[in-house]
Specification:
296 residues, alpha+beta, Rossmann fold, 4-stranded antiparallel sheet
Length: 296
């Protein structure tokens, strides 16, 4: 899971070496062209760094020497928040079509993953990357052994490693999610940091195979309950409790408090099941989830 495609010179081509476009970026470049500018300073890696692009009447010259036709930029203007990666001068959407439809979607900072129209991160009034940092800070301490349950784009695992975790095991069974993550420049550390083990396995099966007390902290970020109800069940919560040390800490993302059927509040049921397996759950609104310690 740590490998990237090989470039012409034999080196690995990671996301940080690619060029990314969005409709907003295309609009910025085209506006500079319309105003007679010969160059524009923009971000070509989804808001991580800035670069200079040179503008001619017919094309845009990227820092790596690639030419991008103006008409290809114009075609992106109505593409909303979708993210495109440039391959041989052609913008291609970062997407996967499998059981669901997966798209990388731009925000004002780090992108989010959208699966069949549902965003996997909170984006209104917050940054997915900063949100991941806040969640990790709530439960992870330096030297911890961390389980990242439902790893997604890897933001949680990255922050756990940055904040001093000894080891991070990130479980993500959906290979389409991992393929999108591999094309996301904000996810690069997820695959390159030696402290992070990315395991493409079902998290329920993985936990069942682990010894008791093997983790100091767990971040559980499951899909909505209507899509993955087993990851909100008492049996699964028991495994989370069993594999945590006595002083371990759990974060459990909940998100929207209602199911899609009948507007039923799920917080009460989740809290009751967590309590029944030995947790003391506290809902933290700013984190949209429960922060839990174990009863002593």
């Amino acid at each position: 899971m740590k490998n990237y495609p090989m470039g012409a010179n034999g080196g690995a081509v990671g996301p940080s070496q690619r060029t990314y476009l969005t409709s907003d970026l295309a609009r910025t470049i085209l506006t500079a062209r319309r105003q007679g500018e010969a160059k524009a300073i923009v971000s070509l890696d989804l808001n991580r760094t800035r670069a200079v692009v040179h503008i001619t009447p017919t094309d845009v010259r990227l820092p790596d020497g690639t030419s991008l036709e103006v008409k290809k930029l114009q075609a992106l203007l109505r593409k909303g928040l979708r993210v495109y990666v440039v391959n041989d001068g052609i913008p291609s959407p970062v997407e996967r079509r499998g059981t669901y439809y997966y798209k990388l979607m731009a925000t004002e900072s780090a992108p989010t993953l959208e699966i069949s129209g549902v965003k996997m991160h909170r984006t209104e009034g917050c940054c997915p990357y900063a949100q991941a940092e806040a969640i990790v800070r709530a439960v992870v301490r330096a030297g911890d052994r961390v389980l990242d349950s439902c790893g997604g784009l890897g933001y949680t695992a990255i922050w756990a490693a940055r904040l001093g975790a000894e080891r991070v095991v990130s479980i993500e069974h959906d290979m389409d999610v991992l393929e999108v993550a591999r094309l996301n420049p904000w996810s690069e550390e997820y695959f390159f940091d030696s402290r992070i083990d990315v395991i493409p396995e079902d998290v329920t099966a993985y936990l069942a195979s682990q010894p008791s007390g093997c983790f100091d902290a767990i971040v559980h970020d499951p899909p909505h309950i209507t899509r993955a109800g087993e990851l909100y069940g008492r049996g699964f919560y028991f495994e989370l409790s069993r594999t945590l040390t006595a002083t371990g800490r759990l974060y459990h993302y909940i998100g929207e408090p209602y199911t899609k059927r009948g507007q039923r509040d799920i917080h009460e049921g989740v809290a009751a099941r967590l309590t029944s397996v030995g947790f003391e759950p506290e809902y933290v609104k700013e984190l949209a989830g429960f922060v839990c310690t174990k009863r002593r």
